[in-house]
Amino acid sequence: MEHNALAIGLPNKVLAELKDRIFRYHYRLHFTESFTVQEAGRLLGQHTFHLLIADLDYLRSMQQSDWLARIRKISFVSIIILSDTPEEDITSMVQLGVEVSAC
Fold first, then answer.
1. 11-54 per-position pLDDT tens digit
2. Which member of 77, 81, 97, 101 lies 3.0 to 4.6 Å from 86 by CB, making a disulfide possible if both were Cys?
3. What are 51-99's pLDDT values in tens digits?
């Protein structure tokens, strides 16, 4: 079975490295990349995704940190947030519905 992941705000280099590491372990994970939170919300409403990976700095730069709370209203997708300061961000991310915080 192939699983689907939605990536939002990840730099190309990070996304490429993530894909490489996942495929190295023979996981079947198809990535869809979204360039806006609006597009990501639409995709989550229309398709089944098993994983959402978002860059916290991107969400903050777009003033969309609370976007994750809105996503929780339409989807139970597992969420991974990439953060340069996970120790500082973990409490707020858990409150927004994130299961995992990573650096």
1. 999 999 988 888 887 678 899 999 898 999 899 989 999 999 98
2. 101
3. 999 888 888 888 776 788 788 777 888 888 887 766 666 666 666 666 6
> Which residue, 102, 80, 82, 96, is CA-closest to 5?
80
Phi and psi angles of residue 70, each rounded to the nearest 5 degrees, phi first: -70, -35
Task: Report d(CA 83, CA 101) in Å as an integer.
Answer: 7
Which CA distances in Å does 9 have to 2, 26, 56, 85?
A: 23, 25, 8, 17
DSSP state of 100: E
**Count of residues in the chain:** 103
Measuring CA to CA, which residue among 91, 2, 97 is closest to residue 52? 97
On whether the pTM is more than 0.85, the answer is no
Q: Between the CA of residue 35 and those of 2, 22, 25, 38, 89, what are the distances in Å?
A: 23, 21, 27, 9, 23
